[in-house]
Amino acid sequence: MAFGITKEELSKWKREIDEGKIAFITHFWLDPRFPKSTSVTKVGCKDLQKLANWGAKFGLKEEWIHHRKDGYSHFDLLGDKQYEILNIEGLTDDILKFNLTQKTCH
Asked: Is residue 61 assigned to a domain?
């Protein structure tokens, strides 16, 4: 279940994907399969090869891309990997907003 994002944030994420950019959106998220994660970052791009190449820099496998028919295919980042990538990409506002630290992302 996703919550904690605005329509404007979702629209911006989709617009950036449509423009061929690597786009990030983080929101609160609860899923019983991942009980220690309270948020997820979705990283998408219209150009799937560009997205796969971006992910490879962080050890993400191309087969982990969530392929969507609506054109908003993306990686889902959780836990330590989420924190690590947000930090490297300079998205510290998301780290603060969602109270992410390496210690809490296990």
From this structure: yes
3-state helix, strand, coil in the chain (%, to 5): 40, 20, 45
The single residue listed with the structure tokens 């087969």 is 63
- The sign one gets for the Cα dihedral 37, 86, 92, 71 is negative
Report CA-CA distances (Å) from 47 to 2, 28, 50, 53, 106.
25, 26, 5, 10, 31
- Number of domains observed in the structure of the chain: 1
- pTM assigned to the model: 0.90
Question: Which one, of 57, 3, 51, 49, lies nearest residue 23 by Cα?
Answer: 51
Residue 22 domain boundaries: 2-97
The pLDDT tens digits of the residues spanning 61-76 come to 999 999 999 999 999 9
